[in-house]
């Protein structure tokens, strides 16, 4: 298994390194042009759009991989179910975002220019059809196409940031242009999937055409809905902490936390593609191998991921101040402490990336849902308490607290499942 992962990770890693460089450079242009307060406002807008999108999107690439492995002969139906949910989620997200823009513009007295500037972000939600293509390419091992899409999006964002900085654009123009790049981001990977499916003569089936396909769609929706809630709870902690800080800490703290979270978020961009390479391989391995082999594989990945996380944490402690000044400028030096905490939180959270597919493949979503719901609530409470007095540092401490709780809970759940698997195999052997 590790051989397949290493081969795919090498290709994805090269694209990720390029993306890392582009993201930091683009953020540097935006931070220097906007300043702390405007950057905080931009981060709030982007966090709100991401939160609405995450709340309504089924994030169905994982169900596509899971059902594609189990029912490879029904691939067309699996993709049809995924696209149906993509379309439904996009329309729902765009509707909620459109109503929110209208209500906020009226109730909070926003300028109508500000409201119109958010339209491209609204359109980006309407065209959010990337869940199914990502799931299909991960299922079939076409990580090269995902890497090309990643590189395209990075170049697009970098070019937009450079043009906005060069022409000294207004804040509203930043919203228009960056929202437009979001709108274009999901289209290439969707078109690539249609081309590949045509080449392989795979027909997308209509999940509503008969009773059996409608029953399969209901099962797919159940799995995807649970996965959507789980994904939202995991990825929305930054956004929720940012929303809390906007109410209790002031615009300067929000801007500094946004800068730190943007730099730390680049770390997640490096690790997420690798974890997505592991996801189908771990599912295959759990279904194929015995308990001893699974326990040995999980132990090796845990040690490797833990060692990498430790290196990243030490690097964050030693270099966060220099990195903050280099990327965003001297104005953001006070965000260095928050960056140290957020780097540690990201490293710790993603060092347990292999637990999710293992738990999903053995016991399902329920334990993960319970754990993540509890941790998200605890993180928000911690942010309310800490960010009121400590500002951006309090926000960083709240996120780190959530990551520590998440890692501990995933470790305990995974260990319990390994013990259960071992006992089951012993009973069968006897």
3D structure, described in words:
It is a single chain. The chain has 430 residues and is mainly alpha-helical. It folds into two domains: 12-227, no CATH class; 235-424, no CATH class. It is 87% helix and 0% strand. It is built from 17 helices and no strands. Helix 16 packs antiparallel against helix 17 (392-429). The longest helix has 55 residues, at 2-56.
Radius of gyration: 22 Å
Strand content: under 5%
Structural class: mainly alpha
Shape: globular
Q: Report mean pLDDT, rounded to a whole number.
A: 77
Helix-strand pattern:
HHHHHHHHHHHHHHHHH
Helix amount, in percent? over 70%
**How would you sum up the major sheet?**
none
Keywords, separated by commas or semicolons:
about 425 residues; mainly alpha; 2 domains
Secondary structure elements and their pairing?
Layout: H1 2-56, H2 61-70, H3 75-107, H4 112-117, H5 119-126, H6 131-140, H7 143-166, H8 171-185, H9 187-199, H10 211-235, H11 237-248, H12 251-288, H13 291-328, H14 336-350, H15 355-362, H16 366-390, H17 392-429
Characterize this entry briefly.
With 430 residues, the chain is mainly alpha-helical. It has helices spanning 2-56, 61-70, 75-107, 112-117, 119-126, 131-140, 143-166, 171-185, 187-199, 211-235, 237-248, 251-288, 291-328, 336-350, 355-362, 366-390, 392-429.
